[in-house]
Amino acid sequence: MKIYQVRNATMIIEADDKVILIDPMLGGKGCMPSLSYFRFKSQRNPTVPLPAKTESLLQKVTHCLITHKHADHIDQEGEQFLKRRNIPVICSALDESIFRRKGLDVIQTVNYWQKSEFLEGEIMGVPARHGYGFIAKPMGNVMGYFITLPNQPSVYISSDTIMTNEVEKALREHQPDISIAACGTAQLDIGKPLLMHLDDIVKFVKASPGKIIANHLEAVNHCPTTRKELAIRLKTEGILDKVYIPEDGEVIEF
Fold first, then answer.
1. Domains and CATH numbers, the chain
2. Element spanning 21, H or E
3. β-pairing verdict for 121-128 and 142-148
4. Model confidence over 95-115: pLDDT tens digits?
5. How much is the pLDDT for 2?
């Protein structure tokens, strides 16, 4: 298995002849408005361009998995790519209608804690809570995914979530070989963080039975946590060896 970090939460999982695009934010640098104007430096998003080799990777994509409908996970260019290539889409049953209205080819929907067939393996939805306190409700529903494919390591994509009992359950009961965690500590101008703060990232890493890939870093202006800051904290806790913190464009092989 190869896992490519594209940018932000956009990744590509390549497993034999299956090439799964996750959360395609594919627009150019600065194509979307700022997500924070006061708390952090106002800056149009994405704050960085796509890696140079992204286009060649996208040509290989066979399927797309979407965790939720926010624009930093699927933007207009991402939608156009999926429609232009008629890429089969898998998403939460709660988001099916909105993606169908956008013209995407939704071939499968997933429910929380229910396993279903997926590319000769299985997929299961895991609940995610997009923020601490009241801010989680307006952020809407998010779905994490636990995926098993034949002769491949199991993967848990936790998506945009804080540390919850459900996340802990997924790690404890399903024992993923690889867990992907959103680590940018996103925060709007009002409310508490939308993603795990550093203390909860530490808890996530310690609870994970396998390796962790940290994403959602240094690509949108409301995510203040940097790769360097994250690495320093994990090293202090003695758990940095469990975590990959890839640069955009980097590939990790398992």
1. 2-253 (3.60.15.10)
2. strand 18-22
3. antiparallel
4. 999 999 999 999 999 999 999
5. 98
